[in-house]
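Re: export button greyed out
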Amino acid sequence: MSNQPLLFLIVGSNEPLYEAEIHRRGSTGTSDAVARQSYFVVHSSLDLVESAAWLTQNMYLKVVDKVNQQYVSTFLTASNIKFVLLHGGRSEDSIKNFFYEVYELYVKLSMNPFYHVDTAITSKEFDRRVRNVARRYLA
Amino acid sequence: MSKSSASTNGATLWAKTPKANAELFSLTYGSLVTEVVRDADGNVNEINEQLEKIGYSIGIRSVDEFLAKSNAAHCRSLQDTAQVLGKTAFKMFLGIDCDVQILSPTTFSLIMQENPLYLFVELPENYKETLQYAILYCGIIRGALEMLNYKVECTLVKNILKGDDVDEIKVELKQILQDGAGDDYKED
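Workaround output, generated via the alternate export path:
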């Protein structure tokens, strides 16, 4: 298992709506350069996500891009919101389960009358729950 | 009217009333609140006031339906009214069991463990302490009791969305109004 941190992003139609950097237990935070590179890798893979989306009927798009040792996996929701996970190699199954759990949390969040779809997600509850799910499936 | 008969009455009435989808109910109220929030432009007092007024309109109409459908006995004191309101009326319309706490001869509290309006709702940070989401209930109680000639003041004391463990509505009797159709119809 690689030592690189995981970066999870929720991307809307125009901009990222939510991001979470998930560290493995015991590891320290990433340096600035590594963090910037992570964002770059994720954003450059968005084009590939779009093209992959037309090839399959599934929501889970598996690995869409591979840069150096890092993989980008994506999950597309019904309203075209993209969940993107940058990781250093994880089993397909655990990522799929992670995405589905986050999808449930996202649906509950979108039912909140105070949350407007395709806007930034600022709820601390959502953040806490996503991190819990990540710890369960990806740590 | 004893406590248990009020609640059994409520339970039978709840079984008989036609039901609406809980999600539809909660989401409808949620979008109503979002509209009011958008119109009020940040003034939380105005939002609370609007929601209370909406509740008031609901209250003055639903009290007739309640009295027609339930066979609630004549209330001899405010305690009886409180029991009927909390156990029968709330159960019949919303399916929730309220605990009734009598605080004084003119004040009582309704305590709700859970609130069907709150399904999926999470208040944003800027409204968390000030927006009284369930103030609709306060308006309903105020409207209903005013139709029965009780002028009351209802406040939301505890709020689950704010972090408390229950919802508490305090109802305080201010005045008992005189029956009458108003000055225009006074007979000479």
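Chain A has one domain: 6-138. The button fix ships in the next patch.
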